[in-house]
Design a protein that fits this description.
GO molecular function: metallocarboxypeptidase activity; zinc ion binding
InterPro entries: Cytosolic_carboxypeptidase, Pepdidase_M14_N, Peptidase_M14
Protein name: Cytosolic carboxypeptidase 3
Mean pLDDT: 84
Strand order of the largest sheet: 5-8-9-11-15-14
Number of strands: 20
Keywords: Carboxypeptidase, Hydrolase, Metal-binding, Metalloprotease, Protease, Zinc
CATH topology of the largest domain: Immunoglobulin-like
Pfam families: Pepdidase_M14_N, Peptidase_M14
Largest sheet: 6 strands, mixed
Low-confidence stretches: 1-55
């Protein structure tokens, strides 16, 4: 049961708006709360099982003639997504520049396994000395405006965005100021060669591994070389045949082809020491775009954004079948006030025996750059919410508590490992700092209950 003051009554209010006596609004409210609300049961989002998935009855407090008068309002769902309203808007650190354009990719499952790159032994290790003739064609400076998280706002920085630099002839145009995007700087070092730097996790100076950016003004038939120069991991799957991911909007529109692994002359190697003698590693590859004047994307792994999750949860909530045994609630809010969702999946109990069922806890995406965990979680949810006999048996036997994205803030801003606290959530499950690590704290509390 929820208690909430009602400033604007849904019914006609005969109150004169004054407070009689020496009691203030706050004193009257606190007196009422302490004396009478002890009998109200709070339906928590982390309860292990709720018989029939009940809704909350809310007590509305109306100020009438200077007194707080309680009344009951019809039960309301506590779900974080609703068919009657929009999805929760994505909140960013206030200083982050965000473009208005919404990035969308089609879902596509190729009929073949990912192609592995087989080294020829002739791959180059480009080392580019600094030159005054080099042209900076993209620079994102907003990430370093604050040393730590201050506050968030919907849509991030609302000031006029600085447009990427370029001569618009044969120069590629780059962009990464969108959800989960990551690209710090691009330097054009030759006609068709580009030196790229990825951004560290916000409010840290490390964890440079995740990249996801847009490329436009492409020309077909030309061999381009891209080199990312500030990776920090000595070992990489790129040394074992993994290729960068590529997406073409024209390929998606004309041939229904989505993300795929591409590239030639791929090599992962140690480059010159960086600041303070720290070693960095480079990833270089060559590629020919399939179309001219195309909008394309490169990524480290298959992107799965916070918006993708919200749209998926909304489809579950609006499904008359799946929503009967999958209820979606808000476990907590992140530092940036984005919602962390928790799903309760089980067959509704008719005789009150749901609490006798054992609970199974599943979580994903504690590290933002590990997007494969979100795709695995989606596959699990598709299965457990499906119509197979095994899925039905599992729902009849267990209560599944699922937190599909533990680190929405990190996912939104394009971090690789950390939250906006600048810390790895996977190393803070034992922390008592609820405000600093709300998602892992709430998950741990849910398990204990």
């Amino acid at each position: 049961m929820e208690v909430m003051p009602l400033e604007d009554s849904e019914e006609e209010d005969s109150s004169d708006g004054t407070i009689s006596g020496d009691e203030s609004d706050e004193d009257t409210f606190m007196k009422f709360a302490s004396e009478d609300l002890q009998q109200c049961a709070l339906l928590a989002a982390d309860s292990i099982s709720d018989s029939f998935f009940p809704r909350t009855t809310q007590i509305i407090l109306q100020c009438q003639r200077g007194k707080w008068v309680p009344r009951l309002r019809e039960p309301r769902d506590l779900f974080g997504v609703s068919s009657s309203g929009p999805l929760s808007p994505t909140r960013w650190p206030y200083h982050c520049e965000v473009i208005d354009e919404k990035v969308h990719h089609i879902d596509w499952t190729p009929s073949y396994s990912e192609p592995v790159y087989i080294p020829t032994g002739l791959e180059e290790e480009p080392l580019y000395p600094n030159s005054s003739e080099d042209t900076v064609v993209y620079l994102a400076e907003d990430a370093y405006k604050e040393p730590c998280f201050v506050y968030s706002r919907v849509g991030g920085n609302r000031t006029s965005l600085k447009q990427p630099v370029g001569d618009r002839d044969n120069t590629l145009m780059f962009e990464a100021r969108f959800e989960s995007g990551n690209l710090q700087k691009v330097v054009k070092v030759a006609d068709h060669e580009y030196l790229l730097t990825v951004r560290p996790d916000l409010f840290t100076n490390k964890h440079t591994q995740w990249y996801y950016f847009q490329v436009t003004n492409t020309q077909a038939g030309i061999v381009y070389r891209f080199t990312i120069i500030n990776f920090t991991k000595p070992a990489s799957l790129y040394s074992r045949g993994m290729r960068p991911l590529f997406y073409s909007e024209k390929e998606a529109k004309t041939h229904n082809i989505g993300w795929k692994r591409i590239g030639d002359q791929i090599k992962y190697y140690r480059n010159n020491p960086g600041q303070e003698g720290r070693h960095y590693f480079s990833l270089t590859w060559t590629f020919q775009f399939p179309h001219s004047k195309d909008t394309c994307y490169f990524a480290h792994c298959y992107p799965y954004t916070y918006t993708n999750l919200q749209e998926y949860l909304s489809s579950i909530h609006n499904d008359p079948v799946r929503s009967k045994f999958c209820k979606i609630r808000v476990l907590c809010h992140t530092i940036a006030r984005n919602m962390v969702y928790v799903l309760t999946i089980t067959t509704p109990s008719k005789d009150g025996d749901s609490r006798k069922r054992k609970a199974v806890i599943l979580t994903a995406r504690v590290h933002p750059g590990e997007t494969n965990s979100s795709w695995i979680m989606k596959g699990f949810l598709d299965y457990i919410l499906g119509g197979s006999r095994d899925a039905q048996l599992l729902r009849d036997t267990f209560v599944f508590k699922v937190v599909p994205m533990l680190n929405p803030d990190g996912v939104i801003v394009g971090n690789y490992r950390c939250s906006l606290a600048g810390q790895d959530l996977n190393r803070n499950y034992t922390s008592l700092l609820k405000k600093l690590f709300p998602s892992v704290w709430s998950t741990r509390n849910m398990i204990r209950r």
